[in-house]
## 1
Amino acid sequence: MNTYTAQQLTELLQQDDPEMNVRTVRYYSQIGIVPPLVTVGNKRVYSDDHLHYFRAVMTLSKTGETLASIQDMLSGLKMDEIIRIGNKLSMVQNHVFLRNETHQVNEDVFITLSPRISAELQEKVIQAVSQLVKEEKKR
Amino acid sequence: MIELKLAKSAMEHEEGLNHLWLRFVDDAIAEKTDSVQVSFRLPEGVLRLHNLNGFPEDRDGAIRLEAPLRGKDIVIEMYTLDTAPCGLWDVSAVLEYRDGVGALRKYEQTIPMALVSEGEMQDIVVDEEVVRRVTSMRPSSSERWEFVRIPPMFLEHKEMSSWEKKYRIDCVDNSKNMSRT
């Protein structure tokens, strides 16, 4: 199990969001937004689970949710679901969100593409995914 | 009149974060006035952000609220950056308003808050009611900025530059230079 101090965890989170700071990491632990620290030896430290929780909280915060509703959303979720939410963090970063285009194939399938992808390739990707979805529906 | 509560009874003197919740619990002031100005005095080294409610603040950080006041609240986020002096300090809310005859009234209420090292944060008391209020607030889409006091700078001119001598109308040398141009 990886363990981290508040400073170390902050530096990891800053790779996703440079605005994260150590005082926010500490505070969210103190007021119960993330689970309590774990005790290793005689020290209380953060673990990889905390990293995943913070990334999920940061992702949902970017969508405008209150901390209270984020707590409700995350409570009861399994860790793989929390990890999945945190993995969406890069998609909700303002500069990414504004830069990329999102195409809706249907109510269940969305494709987000960077403008670095050529228009021709974008079209091929959308057509390929649309075809796969159609074939799935026919089954 | 008002109630002051802190999310945490203590905060770290370095890289710490806390919230102060001010609530108007009755209309004691509102009965006397149409509006009240609220400002906050924080311990040395403790800074704050713009209030989380999104109320406009003037350049000194004062917030003006209109009556009725009962039930209204203000939440501010306080933080420390570099090392602030450890100890038990007061956080104050200062209310200023004009009463029924137009006289300026002032009311101040304080709440103690400890600034401690990170290692002493184990036994702090967290006020769940304040936490519920803070976590229920939607992230403000309006501007939030750090409230930074910049002391005024006074420049003293002991000597004038050659350009000042040339173009200042009260400068003795000016007439000589003007005639050359």
## 2
Amino acid sequence: MLFVMQNLKFESYKQTPQERFNRSVSVLIITTLVFLILYLVTFSWFGEVDYGDQVVTVGNISVAVTTDLDFTGTYLEPNKIYNKSTTITGSTQSGDENTNDAYIKVKLETSITIDGNPIITPIYNETNWVYDGSEWYYYIGYINTTTPAVFNTQLQVSNELGNDLQGQSLTLTLTVSALQRDYEAYNYDTEWSSAPAAWLTAIATYDVTN
Amino acid sequence: MNTEHKEIQLDTIQLHKKNKAVLFTVLSAVFLAIVLATSLTLAVLTDLFTDTSNPNIGEISAGLYTNGGSTLISGTYDETEGYLIGSPILVTMPSSVGGTTALDLYVKNTGTINALVRIQLSIYQPTATEEDPQALATTAQLALSNTGWINDFPSAGSWYLYSYYNSVLAPNTPVSIGATLEALNNTLLNENVELMIRVDMIAHSGNAYQLEDDGQTVADEDKPFGVLDSGFLSSWTAWQA
């Protein structure tokens, strides 16, 4: 009886190997969580941080695009050029104001293609834009609320329209992607990882890194 | 006693294996969490805008009409062969030399975009011979008044020709292929001549005009309106509009 009591007493404050292991795992998890919380709070890549009055304001990228894609009452003719333009600037809309300079890229797609090329292509200033050869046009420069960029000044229809395409309806889509100008963000955003070398070289002039 | 010792040893080994598995799982989860946290904290400011529309591709279609351009003459239309009437059109020649017979034949663009128009016209004499069952009328026998068209006779003297409308033809707009047939001698007076007509139409936009053989590998006769030399293109100028 005494022997048993002694054994029980011994077991009560001696941890088993499993219990020691479980405690170690718990400590590891808790430590990791604490680390992550501190890391997330203290590190931030984005934003224009304003420390006035102890208030931190995170920046905003928002584009305002004025574009004419309307072909109502018009049928597309081969090789024809239409006077339709696209201008991109930073938004001044209340509640969604653009606060940061932004790099932009644009693509124009048609649901029907000819040999993989869109039926409608932009006519643009090749001095200001770099085409990546497949879909995106990268702007050499930046935009904000007072600095716009003009993409296409006209749209041109392919001269390869065959009889098989006569009378068909297609979807024309314009997409504008904007990225903060600061800190060479294009090096970290996967959507910009395929930017052409010519644009990367040209845009370096506009980069802000401090 | 030895059995119990062995059992204890076995339990301990199993426990170690289990602990290793748990430890591996936990470390993997911690690693993934760190990687995820790191990637999330590299967020940057972005925006995306899209706009769409649904334009329609134009089409070209042709027909031959009578009654001022309101009644379609029976025929077939093919995108590559044009509009070909099903049977010859009979026209009665005037009764005197110098007299004229009015024509009521119109080409109409039944498509949705502007077009350039060419017709292939053959005029046959009504009398057939064993030697020449479908003899073409000659330019000595009759004349066609077709103001606004530029004629191109492949074989001088015979009424087999291509005639090119010298303006852009807008959709749903009929244009007469010729106002009258005039008898130039007495060989066809009061006779019925047969007209076979084919209408070719191509989009005006996209440069349908063709210059004389430019040395390209594509055969000129495969181009929509065939070979058109620079001299002809100075007369037929619809392509410039």
